[in-house]
Design brief:
The complex is a heterodimer of chains A (242) and B (368). Chain A is of the alpha/beta class and 242 residues long. In chain A, 37% of the residues lie in helices and 27% in strands. The radius of gyration of chain A is 18 Å and the shape is globular. Chain A starts with a strand and ends with a helix. By secondary structure, chain B is of the alpha/beta class. Chain B folds into two domains: 2-40 and 169-367, no CATH class; 47-149, abc type-2 transporter like fold (3-Layer(aba) Sandwich). Chain B has helices spanning 2-17, 19-39, 58-68, 84-90, 104-111, 125-149, 171-201, 203-209, 214-242, 252-276, 280-298, 310-317, 320-334, 338-367; strands spanning 47-53, 73-79, 96-100, 116-120. Chain B has a four-stranded mixed beta sheet, with helices on both faces. In chain B, helix 3 links the parallel strand 1 (47-53) and strand 2. In chain B, helix 2 (19-39) packs antiparallel against helix 7 (171-201) and helix 7 packs antiparallel against helix 9. Chain B is elongated. The two termini of chain B are 27 Å apart. The chains are: A alpha/beta (242), B alpha/beta (368). Chains A and B meet through helix 2, strand 6 and helix 3 of A and helix 1 and helix 8 of B.
């Protein structure tokens, strides 16, 4: 089970004109793992993530997501992944239930499924009383948890999280990670980009990107050992300044 | 299909929960039509005039009565001296003064010729022109009536008739114009804003990652506005008919079909704007400057295209509303069928395709 590969990237290259955003990215992501994708702003994280989500076509490279080819099977990829961005992406003028129904609807869930799943979801998050409240009236932490739960409502193989914890306090951030662990437990692969180095330590494995290349890829423990550092901050600084 | 349905339902929630968009959709059309119909009117009604009658005879009095009873003019003052003329204009009491010379009736009966002087306040030149021509027409009519009794050898009788709008009601011109303007506003403006709003809030990203196709996203965004714009168009037509007594001489279904075509054209423009603009404000500004102003100024709705400088005329020919206004006028006022408006229809169809192709291209480029 550990080694069932869900994302493969061999020599992923993406160029914008002369600018090389992704330079020969090689990595594999396994089923049920939490894969951290780290890097400074502009290091090429977002570009790589967009390619994996089927939003961008790579310049070259052999890339498979969930067993599907990113060049020819983007439709199938889109159906088997979930996505959440740092903006949480809920509709502020829709209620909690309406947001759940909308997102499950566009992923093609049946009405019966939507009813069952939305009830489960609201129960789990303790949001049942807020079922008919507008999103704009919810605190940030709840929005974030709801956005994540909605991103995996269609039971995707992989969920992509683009800096999901921006602007949230540490306690909420911790609670949010509990949800992520929970999802990974249920066999959903989590691919997460983040700025927070303490968060990086929650991941099973992390890759660190510098200037379009992956400079390091290993478990947080091994990376700290290799770079002779007590925490991920140190590892990151050593790599970024090299 | 279920996917698409949930998308469209969501769009309706957005629209009905946003008071501003409701006002734009239904409040503005009603207000505009009523405003243009009642307030901004070129029709002359009870324009105030003064009469300076040196002759004070039967005929001068009869002419004055005829003018005053025409409902176009009302007699505000009777003057006794030509020195008062300046004063009364300066006070702004009247727009026009009518002067009968001494021995008016006497001259007319004996020499067959007599003079009336019309002095108009030309600070508003269009109005002055209009008043003078109305007044001349009344006097002309009177002389014609008189001549019918007398035997006059050789006379050219000039009779003009205003076809399709015999009473020269300006509402007839404004309703098609307002319709073009409103449909442009709702369709282009609202769609460009609703799409850029998704970009701003980051939800567009989520939609693009979802199994929805870009075309489904765009169509889903547009469908509610097609329905709402169409009901708005029907509302404007009904207001024109029942409040202002506009005729629909031609085929009502054809009129609705052409309106639908114009709506789709405006929507495709809105989509195009949203692919260029990245924020709601940019989208708003672009629709205002690039769509609203030309619709008002260059479509022939307020100012006749024939009187524009050559370059502006060229520009006017590429303004979609121009063709729509021609079509609407033809159908509503002249009662012509499709065979008379097919050229304009074709232009609109061509423009729609052009904008849609351009948006698709732009949309793809943006994704890359």
């Amino acid at each position: 089970m550990e080694n069932q590969v869900v994302i493969t990237s061999k020599n992923m290259i993406k160029k914008f004109g002369d600018f090389v955003a992704n330079d020969h990215l090689n990595f594999e992501v396994y089923k049920g793992e939490i894969f951290g994708f780290l890097g400074a702003n502009g290091a090429g994280k977002t570009t790589a993530m967009k390619i994996l989500c089927g939003l961008l076509t790579p310049t070259s490279g052999e890339i498979f997501v969930g067993g599907f080819n990113v060049y020819t099977e983007t439709e199938k990829i889109k159906r088997s992944i979930g996505y959440m961005s740092q903006k949480f992406s809920l509709y502020e003028d829709l209620t909690v239930f309406e947001n759940i129904r909308f997102y499950s609807g566009i992923y093609g869930l049946s009405d019966a499924d939507i009813k069952m799943k939305s009830n489960n979801l609201m129960d789990k998050l303790g949001l049942s009383a807020q079922r008919n409240s507008l999103i704009s009236s919810l605190p940030l932490g709840w929005k974030q948890k709801l956005a994540f739960s909605i991103a995996i409502i269609h039971d995707p193989q992989i969920v992509f999280l683009d800096e999901p914890t921006g602007g949230v306090d540490p306690i909420t951030r911790r609670q949010f990670w509990d949800l992520i662990y929970d999802a990974a437990h249920n066999g959903i692969t989590v691919f997460v980009t983040t700025h927070y180095m303490d968060e990086a330590e929650y991941c099973d494995r992390i890759s660190i990107m510098v200037d379009g290349r992956i400079e390091a890829l290993d478990t947080p423990f091994n990376l700290m050992k290799t770079y002779n550092s007590e925490n991920m901050d140190g590892v990151f600084l050593k790599l970024a300044r090299a | 299909m279920n996917r698409f349905k949930s998308f469209v339902i969501k769009e309706f929630y957005h629209i009905f929960r946003d008071r501003r968009s409701l006002i734009v959709l239904f409040g503005i059309p009603i207000a505009q039509v009523l405003l243009f119909g009642f307030v901004i009117t070129n029709d002359i009604r009870n324009a105030k005039i003064a009469v300076l009658d040196y002759s004070k005879d039967d005929i001068s009095r009869e002419i004055t009565n005829k003018i005053v009873s025409s409902q176009y003019f009302s007699l505000a003052e009777t003057l006794n001296n030509d020195k008062d003329i300046e004063g009364i204009f300066k006070k702004g009491r009247v727009k026009m003064v009518l002067v009968f010379e001494n021995n008016f009736a006497h001259d007319l009966e004996n020499t067959g010729k007599a003079n009336i002087q019309i002095i108009a306040d030309a600070t508003d030149p269009n109005l002055a022109n209009l008043l003078v021509s109305y007044l001349s027409a009344i006097i002309m009519n009177y002389t014609l009536d008189m001549n019918r009794l007398a035997v006059v050898p050789m006379q050219i009788n000039m009779e003009s008739r205003m076809f399709y709008n015999p009473e020269l009601k300006s509402v007839y011109m404004f309703v098609p114009g307002v319709m073009a303007m409103i449909l442009m506003l709702i369709s282009a403006f609202m769609t460009s804003i609703t799409i850029t709003r998704e970009k701003e809030s980051g939800t567009m990203e989520i939609l693009l990652v979802s199994p929805l196709r870009p075309s489904q996203i765009i169509i889903g965004k547009v469908v509610p506005y097609v329905l709402l714009s169409f009901s708005s168009a029907v509302m404007i037509i009904l207001l024109g008919i029942f409040v202002f007594g506009m005729p629909v001489e031609g085929n009502f279904i054809l009129l609705l079909a052409e309106s639908l075509l114009f709506i789709i054209l405006a929507l495709s423009l809105g989509i195009l704007i949203s692919t260029i603009a990245n924020s709601q404000q940019t989208a708003m500004l672009m629709s205002m400057v690039a769509l609203m102003l030309p619709t008002i100024l260059l479509s022939g709705f307020v100012f006749p295209i024939e009187n524009m400088p050559f370059i502006l005329q060229l520009l006017a020919h590429i303004m979609p509303p121009k063709y729509f206004i021609i079509i609407v006028k033809n159908i509503m006022l002249k009662g012509t069928g499709f065979s008379y408006v097919w050229k304009e229809t074709l232009v609109l169809i061509f423009m729609t395709f052009f904008f849609i192709m351009l948006s698709i291209k732009k949309f793809k480029v943006r994704l890359e």
